[in-house]
Design brief:
The complex is a heterodimer of chains A (194) and B (422). By secondary structure, chain A is an all-alpha fold. Chain A is built from 6 helices and no strands. Chain B has 4 domains: 4-44, no CATH class; 52-159, Sandwich (Immunoglobulin-like), CATH 2.60.40; 185-226, no CATH class; 231-413, von Willebrand factor, type A domain (Rossmann fold), CATH 3.40.50.410. Classes of the chains: A mainly alpha (194), B alpha/beta (422).
Amino acid sequence: MATSRLISPALRYTPLAVLALLESWVVWDLLAVPDRRWIAALSLPFVVNVAFLVLSRASHRRWARWIGLMALGTTYVVMHAFVLGIQLVPALLFVSVLIGQVELRILAERFAPLFLVTLTATQQRQIGGALLRALIRLTIASILAIVIPLLAADLATAGVVPVTTIPTALVLSAGLVAVVLIIALLPSLEPKAE
Amino acid sequence: MRTPLSSGLAAASMGFLLLGLALRNWQVVLLALPPVIVLALGSLAPPPRPRIVAVRSLSRERTDTGREVDVELLIRNEGGSLDLVEIADILPRELAVIRGTNHAVVSLEKAGTLRLAYTVRSQVKGDFVLGPVRVRSFDPLALGAHDVALDLRSPLVVAPAMEDLRRAQLQPRRTRPWFGQVPSRRIGPGTEFWGLREYVAGDEVRRINWKASARLERLFTNEYEGERSGDVVIVVDARRESFVGTEADNPVEHAVRAALGIADRVLAAKNRAGLIVQRQVIDWVPLAFGRKQLYRILDHLVHVKPGGEWRFSHVALVLSRFFPRDCLIVLLTPLQDRDALTAVIGLAARGYDVAIVSPSALEIERRLRADTEEDRMAYQILAMERANRVAQLRRVAQVVDWDPATPLALALRRMTAWPRPA
């Protein structure tokens, strides 16, 4: 019983800790920007990010949280794309951790209240098992989200795939559009099949 | 079902790709891959479609306002194991959960069961339906969800609370030939002494007045005032104009409560009672005696909701077609407009006995407003207008100005005779 009581606060505070890590990461990179005008320009989305995340925390507004996270991602990507240059491994890690933070918060929102009520041993086992499966899936997704792009980059730099040609860009775009379309249409196709 | 997160990941991926192509930067293009990989993993293990069987039981299917009803919902998972499933027993908004919960997020194994027990209470009358049961199976990573609605519905009839009007003097002035409890001002079977007459063959011995017979040396028989029954038609004004206040505290709700109490009292005194309700439609219950008639009236009153734009004069049409002219009409109206006033004067002119019980919308509104100087001034002006309207009505009908915060019996007791003597 005591273990389940400990899981709830652990679940609640992990997304906050991960978010604090991401914020510190962006601040650290921001301090490394040499040009003051760029620092001033990049501070704007960063301040928006902090303001909206605080607002979402205070008022429990979902849209505020989304805007805050988007501003955080924008600060990082713009800073690296235009000023610092993109180092592939840290950038992939940042994007994966950002996605992981969102997933962890959702897991916390769904599972943390379940551990607050008095659970029977069976219920505790069921819910613990479901949480463990979700965490394993999240870990696998995060690892693959870093490893596969790195593999692609290796192939590209090794000259196996010609990355700088227009046909490659078109093929990549078409592939991504197809994936997005499949994801968008899949829910509406399923009920028709039933 | 697609979730906002999956849409967000797709959008982020597209954004990275377009930015990378625009900047001709392959590293940015590669950043489009992590969201797509997470999405792909999510679609590989979508949430299972829930196959749930549910049974709901209620401690009672008919109840009164303010009384508690225990509900038990038994859920059984007939499909595969569900990692995370949200179950909600959908309730009408009038029903408040006062104990337990009608909502749960749980993990259900194959053939696993869940019991949701809760207690509901309604402060307003109505014909409610509990259900359906909504089940949502989640992907724990929030990339998809499956919604299922179980068409499990349980009716719950909440009757208005009954006003205790046992001491109220509610009786029609004009009587019908049937035996009842209303003094008819005619000789007949009854308990009140009326007069004496000379004995005729066939008179009951117990009715012989022995004192008068001894004094006058002839046999005399007592005569009694016949007690008969009359007809009472209750008219409920549930037009849109009559709705002032909250869902539980408005003149229509109070009028319905009063109508039920009056019907009970009238029927208990062996009179016939009928009902006309003016709402979105004008519906009525023809005059009849007895307990069954009370249930008929109750069934109609349960469905009363404020609404409709019928003119109040339509009630007079229904009255003239379907009800006798010598009945007593008890009109339950907040007297919000002059339409009711005109209608009552018209009814009185046609020879109907009219009594009005008016739940004061003004008092209801006063309780809901802040007590500022402007509010007090507005209240005084409106109270004067209402008093003026009531005074006009008192020329043709008996009027009870009722503050619904007080018991109706108290308001009726202040009256001397009801309705106004002829």
